[in-house]
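Subgroup meeting minutes
Present: P.N., E.W., G.H.
Scribe: E.W.

1. P.N. recapped why we're keeping a running log of single-chain structure predictions: easier to compare across weeks, and new members can see raw inputs and outputs side by side.
2. G.H. added today's entry (308 aa).
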Amino acid sequence: MKKTYHLCLSAGDEVMFRDLEDYHRGFNCFACALYKTDSTGLVESFMSTHTHQLVQARCPGELMYTFRQSYTMYFNHKYHRKGHLGEKHHFTTEISGYHHTIAAASYTLRNALHHGVAPIPYAYPHCSANAIFSKEMGKMHGEPLLPKSSYYKHIGRRSEYPDSYKMTESGVFTRESVLDIPQIEALYGTPRAFNFYMSRKTSEEWEAEQQKDANNSASINLEIIEKGVGVHGTAQMLAFESGKSDYRKISDIELCTELDTLASTRFGRHSVYELSLKEKNEIAEYLYRTRHLSESQIRRCLILPKGK
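Output recorded in log:
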């Protein structure tokens, strides 16, 4: 019997998705893992340093293993990297009850807001927020689809997927064809209610509502959703939720794309993974001095160990 789980995989001190192709491939790997493990995807959010997925599965560990194995093979091949990608253990939380489920779904969809990379959930492209009540909210502007004969270019020739999956010309499966969007729309009830949860402030009232489920489960909150991520503290995430973030600052995807291009054009390497520690330090010093980027962002995008 399938149960509902929130899954979170953190990249540790690395960036897991370095460019747009990585984000697309990550979702495609997740989609194929859902099919291979007979699991159901509800909502998800792919951040540069971690992923959040709300799923219904018989064995969530098998689902996560299948997803991360296929994505790691792609990532290591592309960037000439070796070894495990992500923390050794992913985080799994079983979700039970209406109020717990709607809280877990909402926190997942609002993840970009809580990390200060988008002012509202709908402004972030790498999550399923815009797939929910899309027609009712005036977001029916679909990208042209690829013929199935071209799918292998974006998922590999050996990947398995159902006929119901549709892929856009950008090389990513549509979230509407992969996820159980009707179930999520039924959970929220109406577009207005969904929009309310996407803009609702984190509060003790939200946690208290979950006690109505009477299942003795701990309330779903930011601490539980973000367990093991470690990018921002709760206070900082709440500040971002209140709009206290500079959304014009360079994002991880922009910086990583720039750095990998620099590694290729200036140093003749496939990516920053092939740069020497000396070369990384020189680039880091330049970025810190002239671009005024944070030390933490520079380190994770350059895969520069702390104290080096």
